[in-house]
Design brief:
The chain is an alpha+beta fold. It has 16 helices and 19 strands. Among the domains are: about 45 residues; about 160 residues, Histidine kinase-like ATPase, C-terminal domain (Heat Shock Protein 90, 2-Layer Sandwich). The strands form 5 sheets. Strands 2-1-7-6-4 form a 5-stranded antiparallel β-sheet, sandwiched between helices. A 5-stranded antiparallel β-sheet has the order 9-8-12-11-10. Strands 14-16-17-19-18 form a 5-stranded mixed β-sheet. Helix 11 runs antiparallel to helix 12 and helix 13 packs antiparallel against helix 15. The two termini are about 50 Å apart.
Length: about 600
Amino acid sequence: MRKFLWRRVNELNEKKTLSSSLKKVILGIVLSTVAAFMLATYVITKREQIDYGMRDSENVLRTLSSNISSEMEKYMSLSRLIMTEDRLVTFLRASTLSVDIGMINDARYGIMDILNVTEGVDTVMVFREDMIMLATRNFMYIYDYDRMDGNEWKQEIYDGFGSTVVSLDTFGIAARKDSKAVVTVGRAIYDTSSQKRTGILLMNISNNVFERMLVRIRYNNICILGDDGTYIAGNKGYAQYFDDYFLSEKIKYRNIKIGGESQLLSGCQVPNLPIVILRVSPYGMEGIPFRMLYVLLFLLTVFMIIAVYVVLFIRQTITNPIYELSASMENNKKSGELRKIDVEVPYSELEMLEGDYNSMIDHVNELFDELVEKEQTLQRAELRVLQEQIKPHFLYNSIETIGYMAMDAGAEKVHDALETLGSFYRNFLSKGDREIPLSREIWIVKDYLSLQKLRYGDILEDEYHIDEKTQDFVVPKLILQPLVENCIYHGIRMKGEKGKIEITSKLVDGELHLTVKDTGVGMKQEDIDKILCSKREEMDSNDSESFGLWGTIERIRYYAGRDDVVRIASEIGEFTEIEFIIPDKSALMSRG
């Protein structure tokens, strides 16, 4: 038994087995879990690195932005103090003719006395309304006199109505000779007594102010720019990453590559100032949640142990008992007898499998007995069929003999009737065929109506509109004769006057549309609905009209494989029209 069991296991291993499938599934789950763990670790690590970098950059940029705003407030306050200096006020109030070099120098010295107590002011320029100007460090700048004479730069300051307006590089009217950028605080000067505008003050703040600010916070990965991309201070190499995307007080982020390594680029605009701060920082290890990763690794290890246990459990409690059941069934087969098996299995589900097999054995034995009995019955039936085959030939021969006797006696009409009857039965039997061409089905109807005319005379009239393309169309045998019979007995005859039966055939989209119409008494709509919708058990076999028509409809439905194959239209006292839709048999077989 054990030797056979191992051989059976080896045979099953050559095919796809439940055990191997379970192992593959569990292996797939383990590999998927490991892959998911690695992917989750990577995603969490990268996400936390990015989030940490963004939080760190946000803190730095917000702090620096706040420092720059505070520093600029100090210089704005200084500009208000300069505007009130007595010698400068005298210079601004003086008439054009009274202004001389001495007055200009006195005003300059007054401004410098104020500037001596502070740092970072590169120069101060003051323009009177008549464009007479003074500057504290005039020799350090190159002036654009054409723009200076224009009104565009002045209008920008005038629109501030005395408040400070911050711009870059002296509003474009002057630039340092060494091309260093400066931040300019401009404001219109109004006389404190008359409130009349007397001039414009421009204070240029050196880029050293921003350099010292970066030194204090000890960051060398920051670049300070103007809102037009002009470099002001910090790491000049980062100026290339500036674009309009960062012209927002909200901090924006972008991933860039420097030396093949991913870096986080952060940037924002200082509120209410034309200054943009950019910071480039690497993705470090500081933000990685190692505790979470350790927990995930522990869970993965636990899962691996559980997976190994499940594999061993399945092998010991499921696959091995199944192999034993299979071996017992194989021995049963080799014995040549269908006997029950008896194997010790650990679980009730496997006991159910064993019980089902034993029940199947009992059922198969019963089927064998029934099959033997049915085979004997079939043989007896075939013998009866052979005997019954003699009857049609006897009928043909008898009709033919009576026909010759009628001819000899001069009864030609009797001979014609017998000949029609023989033709009808010959086509009716159709050599036992279940399906025949439409042309033969039409001949059956014609022969049948010819016989009926002998009985009813001129009360019947038949008319045929058969499309040549439908002649060879295969239809179930005897689908028209029951309809025609129904037309005569339940339509035309009940009307009590001459009637006509019209048969039409045509092809529509490869399907045969076969119509039988009579000019009889018609049908009520409820009768039509009953015939079309009734089940077999709802029909009364004694109702020859309904049952015969319903049986023909059911045959067509069975032949076509669907229900929507018949249409009935009728008008009481006028007509009844029944249309069958019969699909092409060859098309049905190709779809099957």
